[in-house]
Amino acid sequence: MKRLFVLIASTGLLSAAAAFAFDQAELDAFHATNACEGCDLTGALLGGRDQSDAKLAGADISNTFIRQETLDRADLTGAKIEDAFFLESRAIAAIFVGADMTRVGVENTVMMEADFSGAVLIEANFNNADLRSAVFVGADLTGAHLTGSVLSGADLTGANLTGAVIDRSILTDVNLTDANLTDATIARTGLTTVTFCRTIMPDRTVNNEGCP
Fold first, then answer.
1. Hey, CA dihedral for 129, 104, 13, 48, is it positive or negative?
2. One-character DSSP codes across 50-113
3. Which has the closest alpha carbon to 33: 19, 18, 7, 53?
4. Sign of the C-alpha dihedral computed for residues 61, 63, 65 and 71 taken in this order
5. Torsion, Cα of 138, 73, 49, 12 (10° steps)
6. Percent helix, strand, coil in the chain (nearest 5)?
7. Virtual CA dihedral for 180, 109, 60, 48, nearest 10 degrees?
8. pLDDT tens for each residue of 57-101
9. Rounded Cα gap, residues 113 and 95, in angstroms
10. DSSP code of 190?
11. pTM higher than 0.85 for the full model?
């Protein structure tokens, strides 16, 4: 996903690739009102603005390129965010509950305290992301990659991490109760004071070390 955006940008075709897919009037209205619930911004370019507290519930922002954008406390409940790419942005305490974030890319972005409960994050790619105290309760992270990311204090209760790759990340004070780590790869990652309870480990054994 990231390589695709880099390739388009390097050939000067990024704006052309995105322009055909969305209604410019809707994008202008979003910038003016900070609200675009249920609207279609597929393929839009979002960057350089402070859109804190944005109302984007149910919006379609698939294939968007989000660079140096501030979306703190934004409500993206049930939004469609497939194949979108967040670069050098902020979404602190943003709400992604039930959002479809299949193959989303997140690089050098701060998403502290964001709520991904029930979100679909299949094959998502988090690279150097700040996910401290983020909530992934019941999220589907099948095949996701978390590289160089910080998940200290994150809640992954009931999360599906089947086949996920967690590399060079920090998992301190993380709750993995009822999480599924079947066939996951955990490499060069600190696992400190992690709560394991009814946790399915990569080798398919069940870890109950932290159960009350």
1. negative
2. B-TT-B-TT-B-TT-EEES-B-TT-B-TT-B-TT-EEES-B-TT-B-TT-B-TT-EEES-B-TT
3. 53
4. positive
5. 0
6. 10, 25, 60
7. 180
8. 999 999 999 999 999 999 999 999 999 999 999 999 999 999 999
9. 9
10. E
11. yes
